[in-house]
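Take the subject:
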Amino acid sequence: MTEHDQSQGSQTRLLPAAPGAGTAQIDPGVRRKVVAASFIGNFVEWFDYAAYGYLAVTISAVFFPSEDRQLALMMTFGVFAISFLVRPLGGFIWGHLGDKIGRRTALSWSILLMTGATFCIALLPGYAAIGVAAPLMLLALRLVQGFSAAGEYAGASAFLVEYAPANKRGLYAAVVPASTATGLLLGSLMAAVLTGALSADQMESWGWRIPFLLAAPMGLIGRYIRTKLEDSPAFLEASEEPSQDSSPVRDLFRNHWRQLLQAAGAVLLNAVGFYVILSYMPTYLSEELGLDATRSYLATTVALATYIGFIFLTGMLSDKFGRKRVLISASILFIVFIVPAFMLLETGNFLVIVLVQILLGAMLTLNDGTLPSFLAEMFPTKVRYSGFAVSFNLSNALFGGTAPFVATLLIATSGNLLAPGWYLMGAAVISLVAVACSVETSRKPLS
């Protein structure tokens, strides 16, 4: 019996007996397996992706040696930003695969590509060894990472929403940002330990490679778990229905373009906020404010730990009060408090910095914890993966991956350390308008 036959047999045993029976008859054990597999797979992929951001200062010295540290850092974040340019392409391809042949298959291949590219980064020689070929090879592998990540967040979110009880879709989908933050948390902890235990020379020589080397074993585990998943009842039922359009992406742009625009706008605060607050912040604290590197990582680590707890609370709030109310609240809080928060960071007081980062993380969870269920519910099953992937990756390509670079550039050109805060405020305004124009999705059945 082939793996496909075994999978199909497993689906027959575990899914509801009658089409259209909904999610109520799904065995709780199956749901737990789906949640665990989604969490672990997403965690592995985003730990790989975060390692680059947290070790940006060391990577800049290895691949972009320059007497101007800020220029080297900007080049490092430039590679980070360019890798996001392939994410819309990845969103189209992974979305098509996920909607046509299944969520499980797309998710299994995305994690394999990500971890393979990450492991290869650990083996790269630096600029001192092979010159300009080193950053070019780094860029090529980062492009593979960006392409792979395009299918991860959207696929896992759609998968969980389709398996979740109707009144708990927000809570179940919150597993995705929680697992992402857990991957970042481990990356931050590892960066803090490495920078605290190793000298600068040791970090540049071999220390920075350690997180990337871990990609191989973790990725194989994640891949194995995902091949044991079953596709959701909603997807299996939708795949049996006749369709007037064989291309999910064509159907998406032809019949759901309004939702696509609203979704892309709603993602903007998540895109900028996530990468500024949870990825760029250690670099901002150490390079711009002069805080010790280890303490910078420690502050972000504390913020990430609290962020994970707040995420699940936000998921429950969105189930109770609706997606729009929670998302609008997040945008308003950022518009009012983000610039004063950056002013408090300038005090240099470590306790104040930790408290501010906890506050920023809590504000961000109101958006991040609600967004996965909101985006997945906006699109019908046959284009859900595509709609989520295209809108999410388009905003992240234009504004998320570029956020650390733009923040560094704004500070360099204006001399104003509050520039990242003003940038975040602008993103919050656009998200507020997009969400306000959308319809409430939390109490509607998945179409």
Notes: Residues 83 and 142 are 5 Å apart (CA to CA). The two ends are 34 Å apart (CA to CA).
